[in-house]
Amino acid sequence: MEPVVIVGAGLAGSEAAWQILKRGGKAILFEMKPEVFSSAHRLPGFAEVVCSNSFKSESLDNAVGILKEEMRQLDSLILRAAKETHVPAGESLAVDREAFSNYVTQQLEQMENLKVIRKEVKTIPEDQIVVLATGPLTSEPLSQEVQKMAGSSHLFFYDAISPIVTAESIDREQSFMASRYGRGGDDFVNCPLEEREYYALVEALRQAERVPVRDFEKRYLFEGCLPIEELADRGKTHCPWAPETCGVYRSPYRETTVCCGAAEMRGSVRILLQSVGSKHD
Ligand SMILES: Cc1cc2nc3c(=O)[nH]c(=O)nc-3n(C[C@H](O)[C@H](O)[C@H](O)COP(=O)(O)OP(=O)(O)OC[C@H]3O[C@@H](n4cnc5c(N)ncnc54)[C@H](O)[C@@H]3O)c2cc1C
After folding, report:
1. C-alpha 174 to ligand 1 mean position (Å)
2. 259-281: per-residue pLDDT in tens?
3. Tens digits of per-residue pLDDT, 49-72?
4. What is the largest CA-CA distance in the chain?
5. CA-CA distance, 128 to 52, in Å (whole number)?
6. Does the pLDDT of residue 153 top 90, yes or no?
7. Which end of the chain has less Cβ packing within 10 Å, N or C?
């Protein structure tokens, strides 16, 4: 049997390769890193999680939990890697990005019937079975080819990168660990703010230096996942939480708690904490 050509060793391409090999097939996996990096990718390995390190809920009472369970039953490489490299995140499945990517890379590189070619693919290979798994940041030449083949203009996707807060910048005397929505373990750092402190945070966000918008980022915002500076720009009282999660947060250290004025973060790697709070996390 001819090998299947897979272009892109992201989450989809890595899983596709794994599933083909497990079924006795052969595959050729093209990955342009480290020769060429997209504007969001940084790690040289496969399956790089570029934004939130969370794969969302593990609970079987929602679609994302059920999808993961189905993948697990199919012996998914991505879920094996997530299990090996997970970090505490209550009911959600979150991973240490680097360890996750290393795990997937190592598992695939040791597979016998897989040939890995580190090269940018610029045209769609012909006369072979091809899986194009180059993701939302497909390199420009291949993107043009897909556009020609599909005969339509590009779609656009909206997203906001989660802000990352350094662990040492958090005052552990003022913050406390708790579960999210009262479910799962106490894996999240909560920083309750009084009114004055909350407004100071909003003002600091407004004045802060901003990450320049990159070429692929157009400023069309998705209301379910807004950048934190956009929330601050919308006004002092703009709620930083999805409305259904807004409420009074209790701190073991303070008598006063503020509705909507809390920052909650989950551990990502040892020295970094990633803030959560957008609706899609
Ligand atoms: C800024 C940003 C934020 C995001 N935030 C989230 C989030 O919070 N939650 C979420 O679920 N998803 C998020 N996504 C979407 C995320 O990219 C996907 O969930 C996931 O990574 C898609 O997997 P994939 O395998 O399709 O693509 P990717 O993981 O992007 O993998 C594609 C791979 O193909 C390679 N490649 C591209 N072009 C070529 C080429 N021509 N030749 C060879 N190799 C090539 C790339 O180097 C990459 O390794 C975000 C994406 C971006 C860009």
Report:
1. 37
2. 444 455 554 333 344 455 433 33
3. 987 888 988 889 899 999 999 999
4. 69
5. 35
6. no
7. N
Q: What spacing in Å lies between the alpha carbon of 62 and ligand 1's midpoint? A: 24
> Ligand 1: which residue has its CA nearest to atom 5?
51
Q: Whose CA is nearest to atom 48 of ligand 1?
A: 10
What is the rounded CA–CA span in Å between residue 281 and residue 274?
11
4-150 — its CATH code?
3.50.50.60
Cα 200 to its chain centre, rounded Å, is: 29
Give the C-alpha distances (Å, rounded to integers) separating 182 from 54, 90, 179, 243, 250: 18, 9, 5, 17, 12
What local confidence, expressed as pLDDT, does residue 31 receive?
A: 98
Spans of all domains in the chain: 4-150, 164-208+215-276
Q: What is the pTM of this model?
A: 0.75
Q: Count CB atoms within 10 A of the CB of residue 230.
A: 14
**Of 94-98, 114-118, 218-222, 255-259, which gets the smallest average pLDDT?**
255-259
What is the C-alpha to C-alpha distance for residues 38 and 12, in angstroms, rounded to an integer?
A: 16
Instruction: Quote the pLDDT of residue 264.
Output: 54
Pocket test for ligand 1, best of 7, 46, 50 (most atoms within 8 A of CB): 50
| 234-271 as b/e: b if 16+ CB within 10 A | eeeeeebbeeeeeeebebeeeeeebebbbbbbbbbbee
Residue 217, both tokens? 């980022």
Kindly state if the Cβ of 17 falls inside 6 Å of ligand 1.
Answer: no
Distance CA 186, CA 88 (A): 9
DSSP state letter for 126: P
